[in-house]
Amino acid sequence: MKATVLALAMKFALAGGCLASEISHHTFPSKTLERDYAYNLYLPDGYESGKLDYPVLYLLHGSFENENRWPVRGRIQGTLDRLISEGKIPPAVVVMPGSLSWWVDGYNEPAKTAFFEDLIPHIETTWNVISERDGRVVGGLSAGGSGAINFVLEHPETFAACAALSPAVYVPLPPETSSANRHPAYLNRDGRFDPEKWKTLNYTSFIDGYKAQDLVVPIYINSGDHDKYDIAYHGAVLFQSLWEHQPKYVEFRVVDADHEWELWAETIPEALEYVFRYTSRPQGRKPTN
Length: 289
What we know:
It is a single chain. About 30% of the residues lie in helices and about 20% in strands. The protein contains eight helices and twelve strands. The strands form two sheets. Strands 1, 2, 3, 4, 6, 7, 8, 9, 10 and 11 form a ten-stranded mixed β-sheet that branches. Residues about 1-20 have low confidence and may be disordered.
């Protein structure tokens, strides 16, 4: 495993030195992708003692972005430090992976398969995290928000909760202005957007199967009221379908904003408080054989 500390987000201490966290950059070889898989990792204050296993959040980026967007544009380190210091969320490990796809097994790469078969096992064998369902949550924005929704609908046994900020959950198809129309994940051999590929990989392919099984995943959804891609509408359609199934375990927020980082940086605290409400607290490390 290769690791370097990000120059943009090194050890961070709050006033008085009472809390210090770290964000570092890592790669590991992915058999599924046949290349290195990159991710950024937030470790809470006290992690170095090695005495605890922590709940883990997988936080996904948007279309044509990478693993650095949440630390830089989302200012996630300071947000996590503040919420932990105020007792609003437990100390947690946060994984911010990079993907060349929409978190789907698209035409360009099997991103979903790599996430489940390569990334999660790597994290759970490398870092001190809880390796049961009640220790894992997932979230993301835009394309990453739709990825998070797909992950929990298709694999509810894996996650305790989900947060989807401005999720790109377009039904039946993305608007013409959406980057999905030019993203390699959905472009066929002729370089054209494949509407059937979109429909096959969108949440509508998984939601009936999710509702037919017994596990319930609490889900937080939000959108700006004048989102340029009409996600306030598409998010409401998703919310309504989920509310009919699990009225006590889905929330939908519409706020004064567009499809923008200002919205995501300002609303991620509420989303984090929601998902961590359903996770285990940090616990004593299990002995290794």
